[in-house]
């Protein structure tokens, strides 16, 4: 009897050991790039983000070490229900390990819950809402690139300090706009400024003249644009038409991407101040990467900061997997490993992932060049200043993230 | 109160686009019995042709206003000759599906090459700047859009309702065989009518290029609203679609002022109400 128990124990131990070995040797990974592939955010994320993920896989060199890494992509069409349906299918049927990109804060927050429920990994680069690492933080989520808190505390703060003490908001009527308006309002009032009014517009509005007239009538010194992508470009173009700059009011493009500046044209966009965490023309490394990237894009566009964030995020994820020696298919475990390793890549430099999932790196204040200053088709920005990561993003002491209360 | 005047005027500007587009749709539906879902894509093509003319050929806005409708109109006539003409006599659904498919293909091709965020097109120098009307600052270009589209709309209405050519057209829709017996080439007339409707869409596209981005999806975003306009005005009614176009622009503008969150749904709410009360549309006759 004793003997049989001993052999049973031995057998179990062996089984556990072999299972452990098999687990350590599992080197398959499936990445899902979920984005707006055809709508107003497609150029800042979209197919370019899928390409960035592919380049990250190639550059990781893991294929040469026996890893098998696949990438699939999906179009959430800026609808949370479609985004979550795709995410569920990816986890349940396609056995996806990690979802990346996901612009549109509304979709991003919805997908956040699915990833947590399925214990996957979520590296969000496209969405802005700071809630992803604050009130709605998750042990499965890493938020790369930027967020509304950062935008408010860089562009917003700089404008208030320069004398822009009365604000009127044009806000995209969904999670992102609300978060950006909330975070910027906090900065404005904390610095002695005042918000005199605001108007919420539907996502993807072609004509802003009505809203611009209301902003004009408010006599606020700063018109804060809490919108993004096609909405922002339309607002800026039409504001110029209605002579808003000439009337002494200043536009604050709180969130502006490289592709937006291209769409507006330097003639109209020149002089705009805004913040990004990545620009293709920062240094030799970013230029080299961007050249490779643009060579693979249909319109030869260099990467936006969202696409750069997808690249950096996937690189770091793969580094963590390599350090683990295999893919445990356990989201919380992988994200913990990611948080334990400092981040470093050619695009964002050195940084870290905080316990709430927020990636910390420097942010840069840019100004759009004049047409005379621009020397190439994508030569748009000049650097005005930079903010170190620990000052740009939410301090842990202010974060309401439940993960911090352990 | 001043703000209200400004909103009314801004509404009229948007209404101009609705009117021009719904007019083209009404002409095509009235004469060809086709629900032209490709209208938005053709509107987008008008804007892109203007962009190409300027950036590749150095041809300015004023010529684009003439050339773009002709070029896109010819494209439309080729569509009609090669595809749409085979659908005569079939259920509306076939025309709708065919043109919807064409729209998706055209948009897809443009999106593949130009991305989704669009290309800049500057306001022509002669129409830059603005004037202070006391209650608002009106950009000259916007004023131009209202006046120009009003003229085009009325001219089209006059052509179809008051001229001999228009009479032939209307007769051909009623009874093509009889009109043919009078020695009139009905198929050619129908092709030209489709070309005219398409040309109106392209014209609206050129007009809108300096205001909005020249984007592959600019038409897709607009066409649904325009269909609502046509339904409210009464399918196929020329004057009805012009008036409803302008009126809905104004109503939408007022909504943007009083309750902005509803501004992209108000047109559809109205459509539902009109259909419940008068299913043929405000000016439509019973079929």
TrEMBL record, chain A:
What name goes with this protein?
Answer: ABC transporter substrate-binding protein
* Key words, A-Z: Amino-acid transport, Signal, Transport
Which residues, if any, are the signal sequence? 1-24
Q: Which residues form the Leucine-binding protein domain?
A: 28-369
TM ranges: none
Q: Tell me the InterPro entries matching this sequence.
A: BCAA_transport, Leu-bd, Peripla_BP_I
UniProt record similarity statement? Belongs to the leucine-binding protein family.
TrEMBL record, chain B:
Q: Keywords for this entry?
A: Amino-acid transport, Cell membrane, Membrane, Transmembrane, Transmembrane helix, Transport
Q: Does the keyword Ion transport apply?
A: no
InterPro entries, sorted? ABC_transp_permease, BCAA_transport_permease
Any keyword Transmembrane? yes
Report TM segments: 6-27, 34-54, 60-79, 91-110, 141-160, 190-211, 223-251, 258-277
Family indicated by similarity: Belongs to the binding-protein-dependent transport system permease family. LivHM subfamily.
Protein name listed in UniProt: Branched-chain amino acid ABC transporter permease
Source organism phylogeny: Bacteria, Pseudomonadati, Pseudomonadota, Alphaproteobacteria, Hyphomicrobiales
């Amino acid at each position: 009897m004793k003997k049989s128990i001993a052999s049973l124990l031995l057998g179990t131990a062996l089984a556990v050991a072999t299972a452990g070995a098999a687990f350590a040797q599992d080197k398959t990974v499936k990445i899902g790039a979920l984005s707006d592939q055809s709508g107003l955010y497609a150029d800042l994320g979209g197919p370019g983000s899928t390409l960035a993920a592919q380049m990250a896989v190639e550059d990781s060199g893991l294929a040469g070490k026996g890893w098998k890494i696949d990438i699939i992509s999906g179009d959430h069409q800026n609808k949370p229900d479609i985004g979550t349906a795709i995410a569920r299918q990816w986890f349940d049927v396609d056995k996806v390990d990690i979802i990346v990109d996901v612009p549109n804060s509304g979709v991003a927050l919805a997908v956040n819950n699915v990833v947590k429920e399925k214990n996957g990994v979520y590296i969000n680069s496209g969405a802005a809402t700071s809630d992803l690492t604050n009130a709605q933080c998750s042990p499965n989520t890493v938020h790369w690139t930027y967020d509304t808190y950062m935008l408010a505390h860089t562009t917003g703060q700089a404008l208030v300090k320069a004398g822009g003490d009365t604000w009127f908001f044009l806000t995209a009527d969904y999670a992102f706009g609300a978060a950006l308006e909330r975070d910027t309002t906090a900065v404005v009032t904390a610095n002695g400024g005042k918000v005199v009014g605001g108007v919420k517009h539907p996502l993807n509005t072609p004509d802003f003249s009505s809203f611009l007239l209301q902003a004009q009538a408010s006599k606020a010194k700063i018109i804060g644009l809490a919108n993004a992508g096609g909405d922002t470009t339309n607002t800026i173009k039409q504001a110029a038409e209605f002579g808003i700059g000439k009337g002494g009011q200043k536009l604050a493009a709180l969130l502006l991407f490289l592709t937006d500046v291209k769409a507006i044209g330097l003639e109209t966009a020149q002089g705009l101040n805004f913040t990004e965490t990545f620009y293709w023309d920062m240094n030799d490394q970013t230029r080299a990467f961007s050249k490779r990237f643009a060579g693979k894009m249909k319109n030869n566009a260099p990467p936006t900061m969202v696409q750069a964030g997808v690249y950096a995020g996937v690189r770091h994820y793969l580094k963590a997997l390599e350090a683990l020696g295999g893919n445990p298919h356990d989201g919380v475990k992988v994200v913990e490993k990611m948080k334990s390793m400092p981040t470093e890549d050619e695009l964002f430099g050195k940084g870290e992932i905080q316990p709430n999932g927020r990636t910390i790196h420097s942010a840069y204040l840019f100004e759009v060049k004049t047409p005379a200053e621009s020397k190439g088709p994508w030569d748009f920005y000049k650097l005005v200043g930079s903010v170190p990561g620990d000052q740009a993003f939410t301090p842990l002491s202010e974060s309401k993230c439940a993960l911090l209360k352990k | 109160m001043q703000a209200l005047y400004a909103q009314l005027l801004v509404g009229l500007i948007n209404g101009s686009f609705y009117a021009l587009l719904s007019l083209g749709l009404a002409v095509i539906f009235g004469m060809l019995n086709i629900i032209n879902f490709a209208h938005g894509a053709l509107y987008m093509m008008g804007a892109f042709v203007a962009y190409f003319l300027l950036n590749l050929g150095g041809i300015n806005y004023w010529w684009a206003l003439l050339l773009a409708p002709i070029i896109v109109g010819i494209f439309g006539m080729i569509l009609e000759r090669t595809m749409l003409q085979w659908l005569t006599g079939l259920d509306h659904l076939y025309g709708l599906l065919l043109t919807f498919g064409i729209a998706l293909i055209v948009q897809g091709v443009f999106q593949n090459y130009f991305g989704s965020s669009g290309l800049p097109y500057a306001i022509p120098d002669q129409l830059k700047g603005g004037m202070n009307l006391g209650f608002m600052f009106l950009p000259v270009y916007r004023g131009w859009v209202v006046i120009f589209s009003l003229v085009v709309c009325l001219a089209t209405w006059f052509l179809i309702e008051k001229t001999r050519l228009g009479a032939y057209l209307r007769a051909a829709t009623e009874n093509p065989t009889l009109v043919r017996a009078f020695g009139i080439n009905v198929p050619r007339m129908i092709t030209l009518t489709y070309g005219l409707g398409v040309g109106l869409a392209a014209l609206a596209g050129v007009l809108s290029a300096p205001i909005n981005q020249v984007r592959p999806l600019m038409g897709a975003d607009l066409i649904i609203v325009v269909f609502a306009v046509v339904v409210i005005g009464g399918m196929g009614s020329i004057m009805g679609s012009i008036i409803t176009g302008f009126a809905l622009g104004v109503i939408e503008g007022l909504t943007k002022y009083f309750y902005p969150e509803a501004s992209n749904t108000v047109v559809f709410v109205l459509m539902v109400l009109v259909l419940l009360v008068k299913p043929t549309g405000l000016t439509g006759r019973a079929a």
